[in-house]
């Protein structure tokens, strides 16, 4: 029914016939009206031509009467033609007195309920394998109708076999009676028979199947949201005029769909009265005429004015709807009669071992196992010191609060505009946390020690690079006392008591280089340097902690504004008027903070009476309460007032942090965090002037990295759940993204049209080219050139529109707020996250094809990339049970063994699978070993691997992801490509994963490339090469390494063999023996013995000569000079090596610290004049934040070619 001013129109009754029937009249065929006067005809036509009408079915407005009438007739015919007849009755029953009030929500509810629910008599099609990424499960959405593709879709459907649902069987869900856990969900089976057009087909040619809702679908144009909405508009009406009244089916359709006019009990409140609505429909004759309420209509009189109370032909279309529905039912009965003649076959799912639908997307583990993916072996993790490590040996520890760390990082960067903080990278966030550790501020040191062999053959270390040593006095004679008192010596593999060997794993390449340089003559030791002093810790502007303080301060500012008004909507019981009651309530669960003197007094007074103990406890509570009061009201200023005045400088922000945590301690999630913060950070005794400084020093030295992350996460969690500013930012972002999507849709629509025009031009040019080639063209040369120019212009236009569309797609990715963007999960239920493109500034460049020209997408130049890694998270316990088939006992046993023995040992203990030294995987069952995977990577064909065995083989026992608290990362773009190649498009999880990651792959590649080629990485690499070249120039020579060993031999020789008496006596014996043998018969044996004695004689004579020469003063002086020169050269090289290796091992960390120190909160400086931690208040003279319309206008102004985009943003 055509509407005017949202009211129905009823045409006036025709006027009485004139006495003279031969008179000429003016007729309006659409309405059947006729007029005797031309003036009346023109006035009515003028009224109908006004754009004041709307179509009741489509809702299209600003139409003329004829356009609205034509729209209604077209849509009515479309619904009758397309909408399945067998689906109308179930939908009508669902809609009748439905509690959903909004029409759009009702349409969504109908679509969600019936998209995978089919009914006997419906025409359906079997799904085929899709080569695209779309899923074929029952939850997949039915493609929406598109006029431009309906003919193609219909042609595709015509080429497929058509089936009719013959029977429907519903099966209830299987529920565990003890735990009420749904073991298997409810499902439905359908018997399908082929649709036969010929009534006389033989019975044996008709086939039947059993299928579920995931294997069948309706025609693409028969069940769409547009059709559902039209059907609702045709059949529904408000049940009453009361506010919030439900929809109900019109009276005309009640008998057709077998519905009742009785009101549900829960909706009687909307009923207008006992004589209206429900009873009126069945007892109209019993209702008094004055109580009957006619529907509100607009009735047009002869002058075009609105009248009431005149009957019209408003049920004409409804009558047609009845007629068509009855005809459709009759046609369906004929089809049903034909189907009853078919021979019912045995219903099976599999025939000859093959399912009727063989190429569908299936469960990931139903796919055959292929090979081990390459990226798993390169996975890395962040250890307990937030160092990126590849060491998966026994006892490795991951960072416990890594998930909270990610949440805090992502929240601050996502809402940086509201927090007034400039974006920063993931490495900068890690580094600023490390800079709060006094040990991290000083780094590590490398000691180089010379090893010598003592008299008793024990190895000893001469600590050359550790401390000053007593040089050997070369001027004095060597003696045994000189050796014993020569220098400080320690046993090998031992270090000084005050030196701690470093257990850090950072900079693995240089660390391995240093460890490999240790030999039996020189030892290289990596130790932790002395912790930083308090003065260094206090200088927050120069030690890298400024970024972390800015993060805390930025979040604290959201709790109270500068006027002192609370902005965070907190629970009422959090805040109490009486501060003492708040302290008492909070401190019920607190542990008393006691000094050593107090503890000593308690120990001495343990034998006292009970009354004394009670009095002591009361005094302690009072003392603790006064101490808390002292901190919270530092210098007689309450922490909340201090927060409103923005007093954060000189570590005063910690007082506000303590106040917020104390008010939040009633919430269980934050109670332990507050208690730990209070016990460790609050000083026990301090002067009033030193409180903020002591709080900061305790924060840095007494809290672990995990505990500091807990504090920041608690603030983020409170703000994200209760801050209206964050809520408003999310709503604005949703509106802004919707505008971008609208503009993108306009560009896409225009691009599609221009691509069609381009195709037409190309076809015309091909025809012209053929005619020119065959000399059949009558076109002149100028006309041909004109056609070519048109084609070139059209190509340029299409390219520009494509570029605009790509730009808007990128902007949509850049501006969409999504915390911890979820890419998807693989076959083992491992989840993959990428932190870029979710409302965070990301400088990306797109290179032109003809050069290296870069197009900057964002304006923020401070951060070139965000994270530059893909994070991998382990599966939850539920996923391990449902997808991998593990039991709760197996999961608990694995976690227990992994904690104590390591992942590999736990895997062997629970699953009996281990990796051999030759890379084979074997299953051990007692004394029997079964090879699962050969060392060449070939799977044993005789064994079918279950899901957990596949997971072990692919991930390796050392890197098993078995818990959602495990976080690994992919650090190289080659491993990302390996991941994408490994994913199987036929698997359910991985199909969805591929659909998400493939469009983002260019952005992922660019972020990885930016990280690898960032300025920090370039500087580190350049300086590392220089230090390595200097290290090579200071390598110790063999002469320098053997100096102490040769000197020891020489000293021992001088002490023990100063005289040559023994050699001379032996020489005399040898000479006498030679003379005796010469007198004997010269046999071969005698001659051989004489030759040996002659050699011994020569050796003894040479030894005697050397010892005589060594005792001369000139030679001894010369040797001492050489040793002194070598020793000085060695000491210089050792000192230089120690410095160079110390610089090398600390280079990445110290450069990262320099990078964090250079970071400035430019956003706060721009809007407030200074960084937030410097008692900054908002500068009211600065420009206000841009509205959504202004942001959109700026975005559209930066479009590469905005000629096709309207600068004025469209309204939502």
TrEMBL record:
Residues 399-459 form the DDT domain. Residues 586-602 have a biased composition (Basic and acidic residues). The keyword Coiled coil applies. Residues 143-154 have a biased composition (Polar residues). The keyword Nucleus applies. Residues 132-142 have a biased composition (Low complexity). Residues 1083-1110 form a coiled coil. Keywords: Coiled coil, Nucleus. Residues 603-626 have a biased composition (Acidic residues). GO terms for cellular component: CHRAC; chromosome, telomeric region. It comes from the Eukaryota. It is found in: Nucleus. Residues 132-154, 582-627 are annotated as: Disordered. GO terms for biological process: cellular response to pheromone; negative regulation of transcription by RNA polymerase II; subtelomeric heterochromatin formation. Residues 23-130 form the WAC domain. PANTHER family: ISWI CHROMATIN-REMODELING COMPLEX SUBUNIT YPL216W-RELATED. This is WAC domain-containing protein. It comes from Tetrapisispora phaffii (strain ATCC 24235 / CBS 4417 / NBRC 1672 / NRRL Y-8282 / UCD 70-5) (Yeast).
């Amino acid at each position: 029914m055509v509407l005017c001013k949202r009211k129905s129109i009823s045409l006036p009754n025709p006027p009485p016939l004139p006495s003279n029937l031969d008179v000429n009249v003016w007729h309006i065929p659409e309405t059947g009206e006729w007029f005797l006067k031309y003036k009346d005809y023109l006035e009515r036509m003028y009224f109908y031509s006004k754009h004041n009408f709307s179509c009741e079915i489509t809702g299209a407005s600003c139409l003329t009467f004829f356009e609205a009438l034509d729209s209604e007739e077209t849509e009515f015919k479309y619904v009758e033609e397309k909408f399945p007849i067998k689906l109308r009755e179930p939908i009508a029953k669902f809609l009748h007195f439905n509690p959903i009030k909004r029409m759009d929500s009702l349409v969504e509810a109908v679509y969600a309920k019936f998209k995978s629910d089919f009914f006997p008599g419906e025409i359906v099609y079997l799904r085929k394998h899709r080569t695209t990424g779309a899923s074929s499960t029952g939850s997949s959405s039915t493609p929406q109708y598109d006029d431009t593709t309906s003919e193609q879709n219909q042609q595709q459907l015509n080429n497929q076999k058509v089936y009719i649902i013959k029977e429907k069987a519903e099966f209830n869900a299987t529920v565990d009676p003890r735990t009420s856990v749904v073991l298997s969900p409810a499902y439905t089976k359908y018997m399908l028979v082929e649709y036969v057009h010929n009534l006389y087909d033989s019975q044996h040619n008709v086939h039947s199947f059993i299928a579920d809702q995931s294997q069948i679908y309706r025609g693409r144009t028969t069940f769409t949201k547009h059709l559902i909405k039209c059907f609702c508009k045709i059949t529904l009406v408000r049940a009453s005029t009361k506010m919030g009244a439900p929809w109900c089916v019109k009276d005309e359709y009640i008998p057709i769909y077998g519905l009742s006019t009785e009101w549900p009990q829960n909706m009687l409140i909307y009923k207008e009265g006992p004589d209206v609505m429900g009873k009126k429909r069945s007892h109209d004759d019993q209702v008094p005429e004055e109580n009957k309420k006619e529907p509100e209509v607009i009735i047009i009189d002869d002058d075009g004015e609105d009248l009431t109370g005149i009957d019209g032909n408003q049920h004409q279309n409804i009558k047609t709807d009845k007629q068509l529905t009855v005809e459709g039912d009759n046609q369906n009965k004929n089809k049903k009669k034909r189907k009853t003649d078919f021979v019912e076959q045995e219903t099976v799912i599999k025939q000859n071992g093959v399912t009727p639908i063989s190429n569908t997307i299936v469960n990931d583990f139903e796919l055959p196992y292929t090979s081990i993916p390459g990226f798993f072996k390169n996975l890395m993790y962040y250890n307990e010191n937030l160092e990126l490590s590849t060491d998966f040996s026994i006892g490795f520890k991951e960072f416990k609060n890594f998930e909270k760390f990610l949440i805090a990082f992502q929240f601050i960067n996502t809402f940086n505009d509201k927090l007034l903080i400039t974006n920063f990278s993931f490495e900068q966030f890690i580094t600023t946390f490390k800079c709060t550790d006094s040990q991290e501020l000083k780094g590590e040191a490398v000691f180089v020690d010379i090893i010598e062999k003592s008299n008793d053959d024990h190895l000893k270390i001469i600590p050359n690079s550790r401390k000053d040593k007593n040089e050997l006095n070369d001027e004095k004679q060597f003696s045994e006392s000189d050796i014993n008192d020569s220098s400080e010596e320690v046993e090998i593999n031992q270090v000084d008591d005050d030196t701690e060997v470093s257990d850090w794993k950072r900079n693995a390449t240089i660390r391995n280089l240093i460890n490999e340089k240790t030999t039996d003559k020189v030892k290289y030791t990596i130790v932790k340097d002395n912790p930083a002093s308090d003065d260094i810790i206090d200088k927050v502007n120069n030690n890298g902690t400024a970024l972390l303080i800015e993060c805390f301060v930025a979040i604290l500012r959201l709790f109270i504004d500068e006027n002192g008004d609370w902005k965070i909507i907190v629970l009422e019981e959090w805040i109490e008027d009486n501060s003492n009651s708040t302290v008492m309530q909070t401190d019920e669960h607190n542990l008393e903070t006691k000094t050593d003197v107090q503890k000593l007094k308690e120990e001495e007074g343990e034998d006292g009476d009970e009354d004394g103990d009670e009095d002591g406890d009361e005094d302690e509570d009072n003392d603790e309460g006064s101490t808390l009061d002292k901190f919270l009201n530092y210098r007689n200023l309450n922490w909340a007032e201090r927060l409103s005045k923005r007093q954060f400088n000189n570590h005063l922000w910690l007082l506000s942090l303590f106040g917020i945590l104390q008010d939040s301690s009633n919430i269980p999630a934050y109670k332990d965090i507050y208690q730990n913060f209070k016990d460790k950070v609050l000083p026990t005794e301090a002067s009033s002037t030193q409180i903020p400084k002591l709080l900061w020093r305790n924060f840095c030295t007494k809290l672990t990295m995990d505990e500091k992350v807990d504090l920041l996460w608690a603030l983020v969690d409170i703000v994200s759940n209760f801050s209206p500013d964050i809520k408003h930012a999310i709503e604005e972002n949703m509106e802004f993204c919707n505008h971008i999507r609208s503009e993108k849709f306009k560009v896409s629509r225009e691009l599609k049209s221009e691509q069609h025009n381009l195709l037409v031009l190309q076809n015309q040019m091909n025809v012209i080219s053929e005619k020119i080639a065959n000399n059949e063209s009558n076109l002149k040369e100028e006309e041909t050139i004109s056609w070519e120019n048109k084609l070139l212009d059209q190509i340029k236009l299409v390219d520009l529109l494509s570029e605009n569309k790509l730009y808007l797609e990128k902007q949509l990715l850049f501006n969409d707020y999504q915390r911890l963007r979820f890419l998807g999960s693989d076959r083992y239920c491992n989840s993959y996250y990428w932190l870029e493109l979710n409302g965070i500034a990301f400088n990306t460049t797109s290179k032109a094809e003809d050069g290296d020209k870069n197009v900057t997408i964002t304006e923020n130049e401070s951060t070139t990339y965000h994270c530059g890694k893909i994070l991998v998270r382990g599966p939850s316990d539920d996923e391990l049970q449902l997808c991998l088939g593990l039991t709760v006992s197996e999961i608990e046993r694995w976690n227990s063994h992994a904690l104590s023995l390591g992942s590999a040992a736990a895997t062997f203990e629970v699953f009996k699978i281990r990796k051999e030294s030759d890379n084979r995987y074997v299953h051990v069952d007692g004394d029997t070993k079964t090879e699962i995977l050969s060392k060449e990577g070939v799977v044993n064909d005789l064994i079918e691997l279950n899901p957990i065995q596949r997971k072990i083989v692919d991930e390796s026992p050392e890197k098993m992801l078995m818990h959602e608290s495990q976080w690994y990362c992919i650090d190289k773009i080659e491993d990302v490509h390996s991941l994408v190649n490994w994913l199987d498009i036929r698997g359910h999880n991985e199909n969805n994963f591929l659909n998400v990651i493939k469009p983002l792959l260019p952005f992922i590649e660019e972020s990885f490339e930016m990280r690898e080629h960032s300025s920090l990485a370039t500087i580190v690499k350049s300086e590392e090469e220089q230090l390595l070249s200097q290290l090579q120039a200071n390598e110790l020579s063999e002469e320098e390494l053997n100096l102490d060993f040769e000197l020891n031999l020489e000293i021992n020789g001088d002490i023990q063999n100063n005289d040559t008496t023994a050699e001379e006596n032996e020489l005399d014996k040898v000479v006498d023996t030679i003379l005796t043998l010469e007198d004997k018969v010269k046999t071969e044996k005698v001659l051989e013995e004489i030759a040996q004695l002659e050699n011994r004689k020569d050796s003894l004579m040479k030894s005697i000569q050397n010892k005589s020469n060594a005792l001369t003063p000139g030679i001894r002086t010369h040797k001492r000079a050489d040793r002194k020169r070598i020793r000085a050269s060695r000491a210089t090289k050792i000192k230089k090596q120690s410095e160079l290796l110390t610089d090398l091992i600390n280079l990445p960390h110290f450069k990262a610290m320099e990078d964090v120190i250079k970071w400035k909160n430019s956003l706060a400086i721009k809007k407030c004049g200074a960084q937030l931690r410097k008692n900054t208040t908002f500068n009211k003279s600065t420009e206000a934040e841009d509205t959504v319309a202004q942001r959109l206008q700026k975005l559209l102004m930066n479009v590469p070619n905005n000629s096709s985009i309207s600068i004025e943003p469209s309204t939502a």
